[in-house]
Amino acid sequence: MTDMTMPQMTDRAALARNRSRAEGDALFLHAHAAAEIKERLTEVNRTFQSIAIVTGFPDFWASEFPEATIVPDTDALDLHAGAHDLVLHMMCLHWASDPVGQLVQCRRALQPDGLFMGCFLGGQTLHELRAVMAEAEARVTGGLSPRIAPMGEIRDLGGLLQRAGYALPVADGTMLQASYATPFDLMRDLRRMGEANALSDRIRHLTRRAVMAEAATIYADSFGDADGRVNATFELISLTGWAPSDNQPQPLRPGSATTRLAAVLGTVETTLDPSKD
């Protein structure tokens, strides 16, 4: 279970408030994630009978998977042990204070050989805005404030699945580019997505106008295009893992191979002389 005594990265009340203000026509990242998940499920030779979806956007995901049980995105998930053959964790793991705890809870909810799939924002998301706001605030105020949630890098995420006890873990990512007329349009879109700043350590007052003006100038200079628009990156990370089961493929014991690699490749095997460098 999630350790409730650990430091909380996310202000859950602020996050819920932000999500309640999300607008359906701004959820293009969710639409992309849903299409990706559905395509991947068609490649799995399995009919799933009991699906649970962990998400902070219940209306959208209930419309995409009407047969699924929607589970609110909370620190302690309302999941029962061994109750599901498919658990989807959709577009909320990047706000988890304890992502491994979330993955463990999902694994415990799976039946043996049940499938977990997750999709959420990765570490390259909004790298432009992150850099611009840091530079602008440093120039104007001489300091920095927490503004964008720290997000996992894909090279580390497969390890999280292993730590959570999944078999056959896979992590991969997709980069999406969006274009906006101004940086302020990007910020408005983030609010409409329900992805505004909900960090526990965020500043609780409006950002100084001078900081925002400086950020807009830096953004246009650094990430603007020939048409005068600005670009923003969103990285969608997908995680896949299976609840352990005795009937799953198992790696061979080291040294148990009966065929030499050289024979498979059709090459001549050369023995190294340890006396030579």
Overview of the molecule:
It is a single chain. Helix content is 35%, strand content 20%. A six-stranded mixed beta sheet has the order 2-1-3-4-6-5, with helices on both faces. It is of the alpha/beta class. It has helices at residues 12-20, 28-42, 58-64, 99-108, 127-141, 154-163, 183-193, 209-223, 261-265; strands at 51-55, 69-72, 84-90, 110-121, 167-180, 230-242.
Strand order of the largest sheet: 2-1-3-4-6-5
Q: Please report the number of helical segments.
A: 9
**Mean pLDDT over all positions:** 87
Structural class by sheet pairing and helices:
alpha/beta
| Biggest β-sheet description | 6 strands, mixed
**Amino-to-carboxy terminus distance:** 52 Å
Give a count of the beta strands, DSSP E runs of length 2 or more.
Answer: 6
Give, in order, the helices and strands. HHEHEEHEHHEHHEH
Strand content: 15-25%
Report the C-alpha radius of gyration, rounded: 23 Å
Task: List strands and helices in order, with pairings.
Elements: H1 12-20, H2 28-42, E1 51-55, H3 58-64, E2 69-72, E3 84-90, H4 99-108, E4 110-121, H5 127-141, H6 154-163, E5 167-180, H7 183-193, H8 209-223, E6 230-242, H9 261-265
Parallel strand pairs: 1-2, 1-3, 3-4
Antiparallel strand pairs: 4-6, 5-6
Short synopsis of the structure:
Helix content is 35%, strand content 20%. It has helices at 12-20, 28-42, 58-64, 99-108, 127-141, 154-163, 183-193, 209-223, 261-265; strands at residues 51-55, 69-72, 84-90, 110-121, 167-180, 230-242. The termini are far apart.
